[in-house]
Amino acid sequence: MFERFTPDARQSVLAAASMAAESGAAKAEPDHLLLALSRAGGAGADILTGHGVTADDLAEAARGPRLRAGLTDDEADALGAVGIDVEQVFRRIEETFGPGSLDQPDSPPSRKPGRVGGPYSPQAKKVLEISLREARALGAREIGTPHLLLALLRLGVSPPLAAVLAGRGVTYDGVRRDAGETT
Question: Whole-model pTM?
Answer without folding.
Answer: 0.74
